[in-house]
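User: Hey, my collaborator sent me this sequence without any context and asked if I could get a structure. I don't really work with proteins. Can you help?
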Amino acid sequence: MSARRFKVLLEFDPEANAWVTYVPALDHISTFGDTREEALANTRELILGYLEATAKEGMPMPAGAPELELIDLEVALA
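Assistant: No problem. I've predicted the 3D structure and written it out in structure-token form, which is a compact way to encode the shape of the chain:
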């Protein structure tokens, strides 16, 4: 069994009172959890399911994670 590493964006959504994750390398699939740990566990399951479905359908495996950069962007308000 081999392991792959994926970049995951994790953020807290105060309106939903939940932690939300996104996996950019896999079509931005997303899931959530009540805690960070639950959200990350759900993300692992989601990634495995995504990769299993990709293999089952004979689709090419994603090449790898894109480079991500978190920046502050200033926007002038009128």
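In plain terms: The chain has one helix and three strands. You can pass these tokens on to your collaborator as they are.
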